[in-house]
Specification:
With 361 residues, the protein is α/β, with parallel strands linked by helices. Helices cover 30% and strands 24% of the residues. The radius of gyration is 24 Å and the shape is globular.
Length: 361
């Protein structure tokens, strides 16, 4: 958060320290530690039970920008719901900066800022009201709450809209308002569930820049997204969850290195009538006159350019045919589904968290 907000952490008006059930902050405590986390739902009108999470382990280090990816029904929202105390777990342990979910959930919630996918603020209120009132839920006095709200709105580029009725804001501005609201109590961990869903490309990239700024200022961020380009651009480490299991958990570079083949689209300085024959590379001519080339693991782009240059073809631009992470994501989830016998047994019977009257199993 901004420096002015950082200095106010030590203020006497800051919410009280975690109670006796909390684990004291430790230098080595991860931002989020999940061990053996499981959630079982009972299918409505049936004795059948559905495992949304199957004993997953996950660790996010302080200061990381971490991606949690997975198809619909994979267990992402269930996992986030448990961490933020909105969904009851069936088994396992959750700690945020050393604070245990079971022993002190109130202290744990003070450490987390949540940006849900749904717009869940009163759209007839003004941004300054919405953000300052959120601070009040954490016991922050009104004057300090208002100061922090102004700082958060400024950080999100919304200071000029602070007194405008929120329903008149654009979709992208409403998303940024939700981020400002989540940051006002100075959480150490920010969790964003599809923060740019429905936002156009230009606003999405502007939101990326704002989130990167928040992360650079020391806030740990966990991002769930369907925009795999977003995860590749922002996240240093990524976990892929499918069928209630973590199927991959590594740094983004290592994950992308597992791609056996990448396909590039090359624009040439002069048009060609047919695809050139290249040693070791599969090359196809596209309808727009560009070339589509498959590059296998172990092959280099320099070798490709050398061959094209030797045949008199100058490359003026190059791009991936598809997002690299998306290719890998599809492959891994397909492998996971084949291993599970093609059964989709992880989708809960209700919208996740819609009814938590079920008994933990």
């Amino acid at each position: 958060m901004p420096s002015a907000m950082s200095t106010s952490r030590a203020s006497a008006t800051q919410p009280a320290a975690p109670g006796p059930g909390a684990v004291p902050e430790a230098a080595e405590a991860p931002a989020l530690e999940i061990r053996g986390l499981a959630k079982t739902y009972q299918r409505k009108g049936s004795a059948e039970k559905v495992e949304a999470l199957k004993g997953i382990d996950l660790e996010v280090r302080e200061g990381e920008f971490y991606g949690l990816l997975g198809p619909n029904g994979a267990g992402k929202s269930t996992c986030i719901g448990i961490v933020t105390t909105l969904v009851r777990k069936s088994a396992g342990k959750v700690r945020v900066f050393g604070v245990d979910l079971d022993t002190d959930p109130t202290a744990l919630k003070r450490l987390i800022g949540l940006v849900p996918q749904e717009m869940n603020f009163n759209q007839f209120e003004k941004p300054l009201q919405i953000v300052a009132q959120q601070a009040g839920y954490y016991g922050i006095p009104w004057k300090l709450a208002k100061d922090r709200a102004l700082e958060c709105l400024d950080l999100m580029g919304l200071l000029g809209k602070k007194d405008q009725v929120s329903r008149s804001l654009s979709g992208g501005m409403k998303r940024r308002l939700m981020i400002a609201r989540a940051l006002v109590h100075q959480p150490r961990l920010l969790i964003l569930d599809e923060p740019t869903a429905g936002v156009d490309i230009e606003l999405r990239r502007a939101t990326w820049e704002l989130l990167e700024k928040v992360n650079r200022q020391g806030t740990t961020i966990i991002l769930t997204t369907h925009y795999l380009e977003e995860a590749e651009a922002l996240c240093r480490r990524i976990a892929i969850i499918d069928h209630g299991l973590i199927v991959e958990n590594t740094d983004t570079r290592t994950l992308l290195a597992k791609l056996a083949t990448e396909t590039f689209v090359l624009d040439l300085a002069t048009s060609v009538a047919e695809a050139p024959r290249l040693d070791g590379f599969r090359c196809r001519l596209r309808s727009d006159g560009s070339l589509e080339v498959d590059v296998e693991r172990g092959q280099t782009l320099n070798a490709l350019f050398d061959q094209l240059g030797g045949r008199g073809h100058q490359v003026v631009s190059m791009r991936n045919k598809a997002n690299r992470l998306e290719e890998l994501f599809v492959r891994m989830t397909e492998e996971s589904r084949r291993a599970a016998g093609g059964q989709d047994d992880t989708a809960p019977p209700l919208a996740e968290g819609a009814s938590e009257g079920d008994s933990p199993s």
